[in-house]
Structures are given as structure tokens and as C-alpha cells.
Design a protein that fits this description.
Helices cover about 35% and strands about 20% of the residues. The strands form three sheets. Strands 8-9-7-6-12-13-14 form a seven-stranded parallel sheet, sandwiched between helices. The termini are far apart.
Length: about 350
Amino acid sequence: MGYTNKIKVLIVDDSAIVRQTLTDILLTDPEIQIVGTASDPYFAAEKIKEVLPDVITLDIEMPRMDGLTFLRKIMSQNPIPVVICSSLTGEGSDTAIKALSYGAVEIITKPKVNTKLFLEESKIRIIDAIKGAANARLKKLTFIKDLNPQPKYTADVIIPHSKPKILTETTDKVIVVGASTGGTEALKDFLEALPLNIPGIVIVQHMPELFTRSFAERLDSLCKISVKEAENGDPVLQGMALIAPGNKHILLKRSGAKYYVEIKEGPLVCRHRPSVDVLFRSAARYAGKNACGVIMTGMGDDGSKGMFEMKESGSYNIAQDENSCVVFGMPKEAIKLGAVDKTLPLNMIALELIKKYC
């Protein structure tokens, strides 16, 4: 049927407009094949019997069976990578965060038709999410190069490049973290293991806007440390993690010996907003030896160049190892550049930080 070398995608959504829009977007990529669409989970189950998809996009609110129930059935009976496609309502965002704990690989936004720019940026996020999910099936699919024709900006568009200064080491330390595909659960495990006397943490997790607040609130309820969605000017404090808001870049800044964050608009960097490269470059510039960088599971190379700049400025850098990553893309690229001091399994990263800073 011609599906052999393509990522087979099944679209499950009760909206005909969403099904058609997702189909149109995904078919612009030559590595993706739509093997079916379904208006509810019952029709989807029949489609799965006909052609086993590599990835399923799944709405949450649907007739006859809700998406969360269907997700649990998929993961318990015949696991297939699932990308949640939500309308980003306030209530829905909480539900989507819950879906991550049930095994969903990624979250993407339902396409909006307000502006051409939004559609193009949605297209990038959606295609990258599908490819990231497909790559999570490492036994069946090899790494797929991104063939999207859109420009790939570097951190220069947000924070101009300059040779990092080797800053004097001080007692105030800061930890900066970057993650993407598989990162939501990895961050949960990592943050749950940290004590209250851990240095302040700033995190970029590739996630759409409106999801990050619910994600932060969920983590805050589970962790000893405080976790919140970052706001412009928030101080970076011991025992607190700040998560970049979706669709905004986050930079680490310094005033005297104290650190704070700046939230900025701007174009996608390494196909993402927020971008790990932007955060890491700002850490190289304003924290230097006082910073520790952590790069976790994720597709692509966002964060690798920024982590190299951190290394040049004297920071200590950790990468998650291949065996514990959902997708060993971002850590692998940082390791290849020589930006990483130590590669550790996920369950050892928090212990390493505790040993070093607590």
C-alpha cells in the first residue's frame, strides 16, 4: 500500500474540521502517511485492526468514549505512541496533563486559523510532535531527519551571541534544565527527588501555551520543592523551580548576586518557543561557573549549542543517558558537541545535584 517507509498516522477527533486540518498539515511532510481518520474511539478501534498505525493523534472530549478511557485501553492492550490533540480549554488542559501520566507521548494544540503565522508555527509543532512520538518506538523506527522547509532560527534572534565571560564563582547557584519528548514524566521523576535546599531551577519543557500552568501546578502538588509557571521578573530561589510558559522564551538574568527570569516574545528558535538554546545561552552569559545545565529526553538538537556555550563559560553539565530517554536526540547532540561533563540515567541526576550542591 506504499506505507512501508512512512510514519503511519491515525487521526481521532470528533470534529471534521480538525480531522481535515490535521490531515492537510501532516500530508505536507513526505515522511508522514495518513492511514485513517475516526470521529470516535469505536471507529478508531476498527481502523487500528485494518492498518496498525505508528502514531495516533487523539482528542479528549468525544462521543461514546472519552479520549482518556481510550488512551488507557491502548496502553494496556497494545501500546501505540499517542499524541493528545486538545482545544486548550482551562478544564481540558488539566485533563491533558493527566493524560501524560496515562502514557501519552506528547501534547499538541488543535490548529487555529487566526493568522497565517500561527498556522505555519502550528504546522511545525504538529509535525515535530508526530515525528517525536514515532521515534519513541526505537525498536521499529530509526531517527528521522526533519525535512520541514521552514527556517530554523538560532538563539541569536532572542539573545545576540557573544563570547561568554568566565564569571566569578559565588555561593548562589542556579540549575537550568531543558526537555522535550518524554520530558513531562522525566521532569516529574527528577523534581520529586529534590530537597528544599536545592538551588533555584529554571526549566524549558517544549509544551504549548496554557498547558504549562497546569503542568506546573501538578508538579507543585507532587514535589517537596515549589514549582510554578514563570512570570516576568520572578526571582530564582532555593527550593523553587520555574517552568517557562508555553509560547514564550525564558532567559536567566542577574542583578547583583541574585538571579531572576525574563519572559520574551520572539520567533521560534530551533523550531521551538520556548527554546532550550535561549535559556542555556542566557545561563552561559549571566551565571557561568555558578550554573549547572541538565539536558533531558527529546527529539532534535535544541539546547546542544547553548549547553556548549555554558561549558565554555565554566558551568557543570549533565545529560540524561540513552537507556532512560524516550528519545535520545537532544542529549545525544549535546554529548557530540563535547558540552557534557557527565551522562547519567534519569534516576541518578537528582542524586548528582544533591551531592554537588546540598
